[in-house]
Amino acid sequence: MLNKLREKSSLIGIFWMIVTTIFFVGVTIFVKILGEKIPSSQTAFLRYLFGTIFLLPIIINSFRDIQIKLINKFILRSFFHAIGVSLWFYSMTVITIAEVTAIGYLTPIFVCFGAIIFFKENMKGFRAFAITLSFIGAMIILRPGFQEIKLGQYSMLLAAFVFSFSYLMVKYLANTKSSLEIVGFLSLFTTIFLTPLALIHWVELNTDQISIIILISIIATIGHLTMTMAIKATSMTIIQPFTFLQLVWSVIAGIMLFDEKLDIFVIIGGIIILISTTYLSIKDAKD
Hints:
This protein is mainly α. It has one domain. It is built from 13 helices and no strands. It is globular, with a radius of gyration of 18 Å. The mean pLDDT is 84.
Protein backbone atom coordinates (compact mmCIF):
# COMPACT_ATOMS: atom_id res chain seq x y z
CA MET A 1 0.00 0.00 0.00
CA LEU A 2 2.78 2.40 0.97
CA ASN A 3 4.72 1.58 -2.21
CA LYS A 4 1.63 2.26 -4.31
CA LEU A 5 1.19 5.65 -2.67
CA ARG A 6 4.85 6.51 -3.31
CA GLU A 7 4.56 5.39 -6.92
CA LYS A 8 1.44 7.51 -7.37
CA SER A 9 3.17 10.54 -5.80
CA SER A 10 6.16 10.03 -8.10
CA LEU A 11 3.96 9.89 -11.20
CA ILE A 12 2.12 13.03 -10.09
CA GLY A 13 5.43 14.83 -9.53
CA ILE A 14 6.77 13.72 -12.92
CA PHE A 15 3.57 14.85 -14.64
CA TRP A 16 3.73 18.32 -13.08
CA MET A 17 7.43 18.69 -13.93
CA ILE A 18 6.79 17.81 -17.59
CA VAL A 19 3.98 20.38 -17.65
CA THR A 20 6.37 22.89 -16.04
CA THR A 21 8.98 22.43 -18.79
CA ILE A 22 6.35 23.21 -21.43
CA PHE A 23 5.17 26.36 -19.66
CA PHE A 24 8.71 27.67 -19.05
CA VAL A 25 9.64 27.22 -22.71
CA GLY A 26 6.40 29.03 -23.55
CA VAL A 27 7.58 31.98 -21.45
CA THR A 28 10.88 32.04 -23.36
CA ILE A 29 9.08 31.97 -26.71
CA PHE A 30 6.87 34.97 -25.93
CA VAL A 31 9.68 36.99 -24.33
CA LYS A 32 11.73 36.38 -27.47
CA ILE A 33 8.79 37.54 -29.61
CA LEU A 34 8.77 40.83 -27.68
CA GLY A 35 12.48 41.21 -28.44
CA GLU A 36 14.82 43.93 -27.20
CA LYS A 37 12.42 46.86 -27.77
CA ILE A 38 11.11 46.54 -24.23
CA PRO A 39 13.64 46.62 -21.33
CA SER A 40 13.90 43.24 -19.61
CA SER A 41 13.25 44.85 -16.22
CA GLN A 42 9.96 46.29 -17.48
CA THR A 43 8.85 43.00 -19.03
CA ALA A 44 9.72 41.15 -15.81
CA PHE A 45 7.95 43.77 -13.68
CA LEU A 46 4.72 43.58 -15.70
CA ARG A 47 4.84 39.78 -15.77
CA TYR A 48 4.96 39.64 -11.96
CA LEU A 49 2.53 42.52 -11.53
CA PHE A 50 -0.14 40.70 -13.53
CA GLY A 51 0.73 37.49 -11.67
CA THR A 52 0.14 39.33 -8.39
CA ILE A 53 -3.22 40.62 -9.61
CA PHE A 54 -4.30 37.09 -10.62
CA LEU A 55 -3.38 35.72 -7.18
CA LEU A 56 -4.39 38.74 -5.09
CA PRO A 57 -7.32 37.05 -3.25
CA ILE A 58 -5.01 34.21 -2.16
CA ILE A 59 -2.26 36.65 -1.10
CA ILE A 60 -4.67 38.75 1.00
CA ASN A 61 -6.10 35.66 2.67
CA SER A 62 -2.61 34.28 3.41
CA PHE A 63 -1.47 37.46 5.15
CA ARG A 64 -3.98 36.85 7.95
CA ASP A 65 -2.09 33.96 9.53
CA ILE A 66 1.49 34.29 8.31
CA GLN A 67 4.39 34.72 10.73
CA ILE A 68 6.82 37.65 10.42
CA LYS A 69 9.74 35.23 10.26
CA LEU A 70 8.14 33.52 7.27
CA ILE A 71 7.45 36.84 5.52
CA ASN A 72 11.15 37.70 5.84
CA LYS A 73 12.05 34.46 4.06
CA PHE A 74 9.59 35.21 1.26
CA ILE A 75 11.04 38.72 0.91
CA LEU A 76 14.61 37.44 0.78
CA ARG A 77 13.72 34.81 -1.79
CA SER A 78 11.93 37.40 -3.93
CA PHE A 79 14.91 39.78 -3.78
CA PHE A 80 17.18 37.19 -5.40
CA HIS A 81 14.41 36.12 -7.75
CA ALA A 82 13.91 39.70 -8.99
CA ILE A 83 17.58 39.97 -9.94
CA GLY A 84 17.58 36.54 -11.54
CA VAL A 85 14.45 37.07 -13.58
CA SER A 86 15.70 40.42 -14.96
CA LEU A 87 18.91 38.75 -16.15
CA TRP A 88 16.95 35.77 -17.48
CA PHE A 89 14.52 37.93 -19.46
CA TYR A 90 17.42 39.85 -21.00
CA SER A 91 19.21 36.64 -21.98
CA MET A 92 16.09 35.30 -23.68
CA THR A 93 16.09 38.26 -26.09
CA VAL A 94 19.73 38.02 -27.20
CA ILE A 95 20.76 34.33 -27.24
CA THR A 96 19.06 31.18 -28.51
CA ILE A 97 16.34 29.44 -26.53
CA ALA A 98 18.51 26.31 -26.34
CA GLU A 99 21.41 28.30 -24.84
CA VAL A 100 19.13 29.86 -22.22
CA THR A 101 17.83 26.43 -21.23
CA ALA A 102 21.20 24.65 -21.26
CA ILE A 103 22.96 27.30 -19.15
CA GLY A 104 19.95 27.39 -16.84
CA TYR A 105 20.66 23.74 -15.95
CA LEU A 106 23.60 25.06 -13.88
CA THR A 107 21.22 26.34 -11.19
CA PRO A 108 21.15 23.05 -9.19
CA ILE A 109 24.96 23.04 -9.18
CA PHE A 110 24.98 26.55 -7.76
CA VAL A 111 22.41 25.35 -5.22
CA CYS A 112 24.93 22.69 -4.20
CA PHE A 113 27.60 25.39 -3.80
CA GLY A 114 25.21 27.44 -1.70
CA ALA A 115 24.40 24.50 0.55
CA ILE A 116 28.11 23.90 1.13
CA ILE A 117 28.89 27.56 1.85
CA PHE A 118 25.80 28.67 3.79
CA PHE A 119 24.56 25.44 5.36
CA LYS A 120 28.04 24.00 5.99
CA GLU A 121 27.33 20.81 4.05
CA ASN A 122 30.40 18.68 3.34
CA MET A 123 32.16 18.85 -0.02
CA LYS A 124 31.95 15.12 -0.61
CA GLY A 125 33.47 13.32 -3.57
CA PHE A 126 30.23 12.98 -5.52
CA ARG A 127 29.53 16.70 -5.16
CA ALA A 128 33.00 17.62 -6.38
CA PHE A 129 32.52 15.24 -9.33
CA ALA A 130 29.12 16.73 -10.24
CA ILE A 131 30.46 20.29 -10.01
CA THR A 132 33.49 19.40 -12.18
CA LEU A 133 31.28 17.66 -14.75
CA SER A 134 28.90 20.62 -14.94
CA PHE A 135 31.86 22.99 -15.37
CA ILE A 136 32.99 20.91 -18.36
CA GLY A 137 29.46 21.13 -19.78
CA ALA A 138 29.43 24.91 -19.34
CA MET A 139 32.80 25.23 -21.09
CA ILE A 140 31.49 23.18 -24.02
CA ILE A 141 28.56 25.58 -24.37
CA LEU A 142 30.60 28.78 -23.98
CA ARG A 143 33.80 27.54 -25.71
CA PRO A 144 36.05 30.35 -24.40
CA GLY A 145 39.08 30.84 -26.65
CA PHE A 146 37.22 29.38 -29.62
CA GLN A 147 34.47 31.96 -29.79
CA GLU A 148 33.62 35.26 -28.14
CA ILE A 149 31.45 34.75 -25.07
CA LYS A 150 28.27 36.76 -25.59
CA LEU A 151 26.81 39.19 -23.08
CA GLY A 152 23.61 37.14 -23.06
CA GLN A 153 25.59 34.06 -22.01
CA TYR A 154 27.24 35.95 -19.16
CA SER A 155 23.81 37.25 -18.15
CA MET A 156 22.29 33.76 -18.14
CA LEU A 157 25.21 32.37 -16.11
CA LEU A 158 24.62 35.07 -13.51
CA ALA A 159 20.87 34.42 -13.61
CA ALA A 160 21.44 30.70 -12.92
CA PHE A 161 23.68 31.63 -9.99
CA VAL A 162 21.18 34.10 -8.49
CA PHE A 163 18.22 31.75 -9.00
CA SER A 164 20.06 29.18 -6.88
CA PHE A 165 19.48 31.34 -3.79
CA SER A 166 15.77 31.40 -4.58
CA TYR A 167 15.62 27.63 -4.99
CA LEU A 168 17.63 27.04 -1.81
CA MET A 169 14.63 28.43 0.05
CA VAL A 170 11.74 26.96 -1.94
CA LYS A 171 11.94 23.45 -0.44
CA TYR A 172 11.71 24.91 3.06
CA LEU A 173 8.83 27.19 2.08
CA ALA A 174 7.04 24.29 0.37
CA ASN A 175 6.60 22.71 3.80
CA THR A 176 4.98 25.82 5.30
CA LYS A 177 2.47 27.10 2.74
CA SER A 178 0.39 25.86 -0.19
CA SER A 179 1.68 26.04 -3.76
CA LEU A 180 -0.64 28.93 -4.60
CA GLU A 181 0.44 30.90 -1.52
CA ILE A 182 4.14 30.41 -2.29
CA VAL A 183 3.70 31.58 -5.88
CA GLY A 184 1.48 34.45 -4.72
CA PHE A 185 4.04 35.82 -2.26
CA LEU A 186 6.81 35.38 -4.84
CA SER A 187 4.80 37.42 -7.35
CA LEU A 188 3.99 40.17 -4.84
CA PHE A 189 7.47 40.77 -3.42
CA THR A 190 9.26 40.28 -6.75
CA THR A 191 6.99 42.95 -8.25
CA ILE A 192 7.95 45.35 -5.45
CA PHE A 193 11.68 44.77 -5.99
CA LEU A 194 11.38 45.17 -9.78
CA THR A 195 9.41 48.44 -9.59
CA PRO A 196 12.39 50.90 -9.37
CA LEU A 197 14.25 49.28 -12.28
CA ALA A 198 11.11 49.17 -14.41
CA LEU A 199 10.31 52.85 -13.81
CA ILE A 200 13.85 53.98 -14.65
CA HIS A 201 13.80 52.26 -18.06
CA TRP A 202 10.06 52.53 -18.79
CA VAL A 203 8.88 52.66 -22.43
CA GLU A 204 5.37 53.03 -23.85
CA LEU A 205 3.71 49.79 -24.91
CA ASN A 206 1.16 49.07 -27.62
CA THR A 207 -1.88 46.81 -27.22
CA ASP A 208 -0.18 43.77 -28.78
CA GLN A 209 2.81 44.06 -26.44
CA ILE A 210 0.59 44.36 -23.37
CA SER A 211 -1.42 41.32 -24.49
CA ILE A 212 1.76 39.26 -24.90
CA ILE A 213 3.03 40.30 -21.46
CA ILE A 214 -0.30 39.32 -19.88
CA LEU A 215 -0.01 35.95 -21.63
CA ILE A 216 3.59 35.59 -20.37
CA SER A 217 2.38 36.33 -16.85
CA ILE A 218 -0.37 33.71 -17.03
CA ILE A 219 1.95 31.04 -18.44
CA ALA A 220 4.79 31.82 -16.01
CA THR A 221 2.50 31.92 -12.98
CA ILE A 222 1.03 28.54 -13.91
CA GLY A 223 4.57 27.25 -14.53
CA HIS A 224 5.72 28.28 -11.05
CA LEU A 225 2.60 26.69 -9.59
CA THR A 226 3.15 23.37 -11.38
CA MET A 227 6.85 23.39 -10.43
CA THR A 228 5.98 23.89 -6.77
CA MET A 229 3.38 21.10 -7.03
CA ALA A 230 6.01 18.79 -8.55
CA ILE A 231 8.47 19.55 -5.73
CA LYS A 232 5.79 18.97 -3.10
CA ALA A 233 4.60 15.70 -4.69
CA THR A 234 7.92 13.87 -4.76
CA SER A 235 11.68 14.18 -4.37
CA MET A 236 14.00 16.09 -6.69
CA THR A 237 15.75 12.83 -7.58
CA ILE A 238 12.56 11.65 -9.28
CA ILE A 239 11.69 14.80 -11.22
CA GLN A 240 15.17 16.18 -12.04
CA PRO A 241 15.80 13.94 -15.12
CA PHE A 242 12.57 15.12 -16.72
CA THR A 243 13.81 18.71 -16.87
CA PHE A 244 15.76 17.48 -19.92
CA LEU A 245 12.53 17.84 -21.87
CA GLN A 246 12.84 21.61 -21.52
CA LEU A 247 15.97 21.48 -23.70
CA VAL A 248 14.12 19.33 -26.24
CA TRP A 249 11.19 21.77 -26.44
CA SER A 250 13.66 24.70 -26.60
CA VAL A 251 15.55 23.28 -29.58
CA ILE A 252 12.31 22.49 -31.44
CA ALA A 253 10.84 25.95 -30.73
CA GLY A 254 14.06 27.75 -31.70
CA ILE A 255 14.31 25.97 -35.04
CA MET A 256 10.61 26.13 -35.96
CA LEU A 257 9.70 29.62 -34.71
CA PHE A 258 12.92 31.66 -34.83
CA ASP A 259 15.00 29.89 -37.48
CA GLU A 260 17.74 29.26 -34.90
CA LYS A 261 20.53 26.93 -35.96
CA LEU A 262 21.03 23.67 -34.10
CA ASP A 263 24.24 24.11 -32.10
CA ILE A 264 25.50 20.64 -31.25
CA PHE A 265 27.89 22.07 -28.63
CA VAL A 266 24.97 23.63 -26.74
CA ILE A 267 23.08 20.33 -26.83
CA ILE A 268 26.07 18.27 -25.67
CA GLY A 269 26.98 20.79 -22.97
CA GLY A 270 23.38 20.95 -21.76
CA ILE A 271 23.12 17.16 -21.57
CA ILE A 272 26.39 16.93 -19.60
CA ILE A 273 25.18 19.57 -17.13
CA LEU A 274 21.83 17.79 -16.77
CA ILE A 275 23.57 14.46 -16.17
CA SER A 276 25.69 16.07 -13.45
CA THR A 277 22.66 17.65 -11.73
CA THR A 278 20.68 14.41 -11.91
CA TYR A 279 23.63 12.45 -10.51
CA LEU A 280 23.98 15.03 -7.73
CA SER A 281 20.27 14.75 -6.84
CA ILE A 282 20.40 10.95 -6.70
CA LYS A 283 23.56 10.84 -4.57
CA ASP A 284 22.28 13.57 -2.24
CA ALA A 285 19.10 11.58 -1.66
CA LYS A 286 21.07 8.44 -0.79
CA ASP A 287 23.61 10.29 1.39
